[in-house]
Amino acid sequence: MIKVSEKMNMKKVISYLAIVLLFVIGFIFYRNMDSWAVLQKDRPVSADSKVTVEVRKAETLTILPTSTYDATLLAGEEGVVGAEVPGKVVQISFKEGEAVKKGAPLITLDSQDLNDQLKSTQAQLAAVQATLPKAQANVEISQRNYNHAKALYEAGAAAANDLSDAGTALKVAQADLAALQANIGAAQSGVDRLQHSLAKLVIKAPADGFVEDKNVAVGAYVAPGVSLAMVKNTSTIQAVIKIPQADAAKIKVGQKANVRVSGDSQEYEGTVSYISAAASMASRTFMAKVEVPNKDNKLKAGIYANVDIVSGSEVSVLVIPLKAVAGSEGSYYVFTDDNGVARRTEVTLGETHDDLIEIKAGLAAGTGVICSNINVLQDGDLIVTAEQPTAPTGEQSLAAAAGQGE
Q: For residues 263 and 282, is the Cβ–Cβ distance under 8 A?
């Protein structure tokens, strides 16, 4: 029994020793994992495994701080083509999109009814005017009779009733003349009004520009207050933007601005011409307009654009080529050249400047940044710059050795 017990104790001791040994080996392995990784990373690699890359240094760029806003382009001047008098359209003298000058005839309305009314009113005026000489003569005769009766009455040669009758006759003649003159004035006003209306039957262009938004056809009956077309003057364009509250103090009327349109490499210089006095209650932004000369009519009203406005003095920013950046929003990174080894480095991006992009955090000026083959690189890959000759490999090495032997 004693021997069996000793054997059992011996087995327990061996088991405990085995467990302790495994624990020690595991601890040693854990403590040396980093060293092992370094050895693995620093192990010799053949030249064939190196990735050829382009390396550019991060550099500082002096810029003017610029705020960029979305904009809608509008015509600098717009005029409504509309009738001032009702009538039937008998002629349209323009084509949609055609350039016109201010005052050019665009639409003609039927004049028959107004001409008939004008002839009738002119006839009435002529008839009333024909009675004017007689009425004027009656006043003159009544005035002479009154003067004569007054002289006789004062001389005691006429009765008071005679003077009174003469005075009444004068007043009647004067009243008849005044009524006639009023009728003549009313008839003349009617003639003038109809002539004015006739002139308005030809609807003219309210401004220089292009005729757009045609809304009329021959034969249609039009009424005042209805838009029949629009004349848009695009020799000047208004870029309408919304300025956030935070930028309101930076933007002033008279500041220069650049307008950019998608698909057009040209930048158009303009001037801030208007800023609203109060912010919109809905968006808390200030509406502003940038006036842009557009003599060649390259800018089109109604399209979207971007407006850049300088909002401060010169500053220096760190930039790298845009093509060096990889990743997605919130997790952008670059690969740097660490003495021939590619190192993945997280970066914080700023504004773009042509083909460069601002680096707000993650890099220092002078750091070599890899600008090619970044889609095949991994952290720790060996690299060789495009300007550096690669080491001879395979047959090249043998050929070189043979040449030296000769």
A: no
